[in-house]
Amino acid sequence: MKALFIGGTGTISTAISALCVKQGWELYLLNRGNRSEFVPEGAHVITADINDTDGVLEKLGDMTFDVVADFIAFTTDHVKRDIALFAGRCAQYFFISSASAYQKPLASPVITESTPLANPYWEYSRNKIACELKLMKAYRKQGFPVTIIRPSHTYGDTAVPMGVHGKNGSFSVVERIRQSKPVIIHGDGTSLWTMTHNTDFAKAFCGLMGNLHAIGEAYHITSDESLTWDQIYGAIAAVLGVELHPVHIATDLLAACSDEYLGGLTGDKANTVIFDNTKIKRAVPGFTATVRFDQGVRRTLQYIYSHPECQKPDPEFDAWTDEILEWYGRIAEKLPARPE
Question: Which CATH superfamily is domain 2-331 in?
Answer without folding.
Answer: NAD(P)-binding Rossmann-like Domain (3.40.50.720)
